[in-house]
Amino acid sequence: MKMNKAKKYDQAKPKYHVVPTYALEEVMKAFTYGADKYGAFNYSGGMEYSRYINAAIRHINDFLQGENIDESGNTHLSHAVASLMMLMDNMAIGAGTDDRNPKYLEYEAK
Fold it and tell me: What is the pLDDT of residues 57-71, one digit of tens each?
């Protein structure tokens, strides 16, 4: 007797299984380092958006200059991704200060 396949209407929902798990694990290491150093969820207090961007760019620049590992023992790229994720989270929850150039924000609005 053939069983009918169960129904689940989740086609439009995010597909967590497509996220690269090795990269995600590296980013989790960076977050763990930050939680141990500053406290879990410290980033939720918010700060100027530019500080997250500057941190991400510094880590990317270090990587581009041939340095793979940060002083924390984690990869520069994982810290760059973590910085951007913290910014995205701050934007989602309304934390932090949007200190982008207001003229650029006006230009984008057009």
Answer: 999 999 999 999 999
Q: In three state form, how does the secondary structure of 43-68 look?
A: HHHCCEHHHHHHHHHHHHHHHHCCCC
8 Å CB contact between 45 and 90: no
Task: Give the residue extent of every domain in the chain.
Answer: 21-109
Please tell me whether the overall predicted TM-score, pTM, comes out greater than 0.85 for this model. yes
Residues in the chain: 110
**Long-range interactions of 51-54: CB distance < 8 A, separation 24+:** 52/83, 52/84, 52/86, 52/87, 52/90, 52/96, 53/83, 53/87
Secondary structure class of 104 (helix, strand, coil): helix
